[in-house]
Amino acid sequence: MPTAAQTYRDNAILSASPSRLLTMLYDRLLLDLNTAKDALDAGDLAVADYRLTHAVDILSALAGSLRLDVWNAAESLLGLYIYVSNALIHCRVTRDVTLVIEAVALLEPLRQAWHQAADSLSAGTSWEVDAADDNSEVVAIA
């Protein structure tokens, strides 16, 4: 039987806009990475392994949701997701905390940028798009 917290979380996810879902994924990804870093520092390998595995799962979901046919920059973002995933998998084997620190440094600016974009959309800010531009689709993940 689900707890009240699980029901609340599930309802929040089901009712969230695509931009909010994306920011929720990034928030959880960075939470997992920071918790994994702390666990590695403390020698708690079980927690570190669980959080690193979950972070790789989130990166896989983000990579799988990219629309390479719609957004030219999607390939670069896909490359970043693959690079970070490989680093985290390597970290699970080597327990090298610097790999997690690098992942946070690479992904935190993206998390902040997605939050700013989502806030702009929810505030009703319009984005002007040049119809001749190949990047005419603003949303590449959904």
From TrEMBL:
Subcellular location: Cytoplasm, Cytosol
Predominant place of localization: cytoplasm
InterPro entries reported for this sequence: FliS, FliS_sf
Domain of life: Bacteria
GO biological process, one term: bacterial-type flagellum-dependent cell motility
Database matches in Gene3D superfamilies: Flagellar protein FliS
Keywords: Bacterial flagellum biogenesis, Cell projection, Chaperone, Cilium, Cytoplasm, Flagellum
Pfam families: FliS
Entry GO CC: cytosol
Stretches assigned to coiled coil: none
Record-stated family: Belongs to the FliS family.
Entry protein name: Flagellar export chaperone FliS
Organism the protein comes from: Leifsonia shinshuensis
Gene that encodes the chain: fliS
